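User: Before I run my own analysis I want an independent prediction to cross-check against. Here's the chain; please return only the structure tokens and, at the end, one sentence I can use as a sanity check.
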Amino acid sequence: MWSAMTLLTGFATEYWHLAVLRFGLGIFEAGCTPFASSIIADYFSEDIRGSALGVYNMGIYIGYSLSYAFGNFITDANINGQGWRWTFFISGIPGFALGALILFTMREPERTLNRGEQAQKSKYEATALQRLTLAAKQFLSPSLLLICIAGSIRNGAGYVWGFNTQNYFNLYYPNENTGLWFSWIPLVGGSIGVVFGGVISDNVVRTRGPVARIWVLIFSLLLAAPFAAGTLFLPPPWAFVSQIPCYLFGEMWVGVTLAVVVELVPSAVRATAVAFYLFIITNIGGNMNLLVSPIEKASSLKTALYLLYPGCYVLGAAVFLLSLFVIKRDIKKVKNRELTDESRQGLLASDNQEGEEDAINYGSTKREGEIS
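Assistant: Structure tokens:
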């Protein structure tokens, strides 16, 4: 359905056609990452989960680069005199083949429960509403709240730059062909960065525990911020060149943050929790672009981008730093709860075994009495 909405957009002839199709595209697109993240978390153990999520999220940068290539070059090619419409035709068609391939070849892995969750297995075999409620409760923890705030700020920076990239270069450097650069920079820099972030976080987790992922988030954003500012400070082609390390460091956060989220919630509600997380950061971050216009009117577009692009990288890193202190406590709570559940499971197993032995002894005594 996601691909169908994309394909049908190419046939739109009225504004309301576009509005309805975009609305439908959003609905059918929304479930992809929550389901995929949950399945990946089941396929891969904690020590390589960040890398796996990083590989999955390469799709963001492949798609982003293709959007510039298709939007600029296919539109200019004016196939059959239909201009921009072939951008949506070509984008939508491959999804049908990929969907069929997944349907017939991919199997959902067996759900993995940790020991604490096994002790309360019936608690997680719940209805959709109960899982939704359970997932929502997880976000009352200080660590997940701060991670959502930090993720929203960082996501907002990406939305602001993504929505205003073409506007910025058209305004300040009108003779530059942005499609020539952005058709490959996000693909190369972003793809390497998101996988690199996952690999690094997995390596530090093996030696320093899950909390180390937060340090990866902090340092990656602080390293990326000067290069984001360099894009706005330097003229082309150096502005474009500055985007390469910006993507390399700045996009490490995507898979790492998802790994943190899925590790802080019960496995039975991973997909729902990821959906909650994405809902929060998309609605907050996605609307940050509304701040560009008033700042631009008060000063300039460049000032607005300085504040909301590299500025939000630094602010996001600061909030991730705050989460570092509370996440230690929340991880301890999770571990203590699991230990308590394991102890309770052990006591129940012991009581059941003693009960079975008593029943056997009672049966043997009764038979002996009957024989006598």
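Sanity check: The chain has a mean pLDDT of 81.
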